[in-house]
């Protein structure tokens, strides 16, 4: 879109037979909030996926998307770093492992939520939760490729897990 926001051009793009075009159109951060709400009730999964990835989407729209029937849309909401913590908590309990994996991959997910996902019955979910949790203990936020740095980050994560276990047993 040449203008940041042009409703007739947006409607044209959203009507495109190309699903990638519809998805990208819904990602446009210049779309006014009232139009984002309109789009959130669309039957078009590609539009919903684009909305879930739109940096301007409100928590209310994310909540609508988090309750979508399509697990791909719920996964996109779970993966969105702007998704509120409470909503991530609900998505972490989703029946679909793909949705839970979205939370496990979300670098904005709080450590207590990642801790819960470390024990997920799906190995892929728990593995992603582990990698994301380890990355929070790394200076640059990325899982290190250097073995010593990785071991140090894992050690910090384990110490945090032990400390929170100890605090929980004291509080009980």
TrEMBL record:
Name of protein: HEAT repeat domain-containing protein
Entry superkingdom: Bacteria
SUPFAM superfamilies: ARM repeat
InterPro entries xref list: ARM-like, ARM-type_fold
Organism from which the protein derives: Agrococcus sediminis
